[in-house]
Input
Amino acid sequence: MAGHAEHLARFEHISLQEMDSVKLQNRVDTKYVFAAYLLPELLEAMLPHYRLLHVNDQPGAAYRSLYFDTPDHRHFQDHHNKRSFRNKVRFREYIGSDLVFLEVKRKTGGGRTDKARIRVPAILELLSEEQVRFIQEATGRTESLQPTLWNHFTRYTFVNRHAPERLTMDVDLTFSDPARKQALGDIVVAELKQERADRSAPFVQLMRTRGIRPAGMSKYCVGMLMLQRPVKHNAFKEVLLRLEALRRSGRTFEPVSPR
Output
């Protein structure tokens, strides 16, 4: 959002310490995907409702993540097969803040997301015994895990002024492995995190008035496909086609209708 600095500068700041009251580790997530050209108008409309997180006096933070999966990509396949209970395992580094976590993100049924995490010194491609135990306890599974892909992005975090709600906007997404690197393009991935789904929330209303509907899109799964991994992908074909159409034309992203 470098081109939107003047809009971001108008938001009231919130610090990491102030955000402790809205961690929302157990929550309902609603994701939206849209073209970046919509940002100036959207940010202007958000001003009365949200504050913007600043870290080290900066409005955005650079992130990088290393995902782990089983040799047969069980976590990817569980998502592809729309299993209600599924896991993702990753290291995540908040670049510039000396914070690195090992995280287990779990879909727990009923549309809810739960996240368990521990702080670690650095991202490593070989899990320690302690980290393996943490993952096993968090997932309830005993699995052999290996590093699968990296992603990098810049995140802007907004906090609702009047409700326990956070909104993240991820831009400049790239995916990489030792063989290749792919950029998602001029696309924003926004995720609304709430204690319970509230369709009267300001951002939901802003999306609705612009004709942008919720769109499930896993960054991990899209990264696997953009890096041309030999995995089953029928359920994601339309997602990839529409992402490509969004890059080309700037049309808003429409979710895939169930069949």
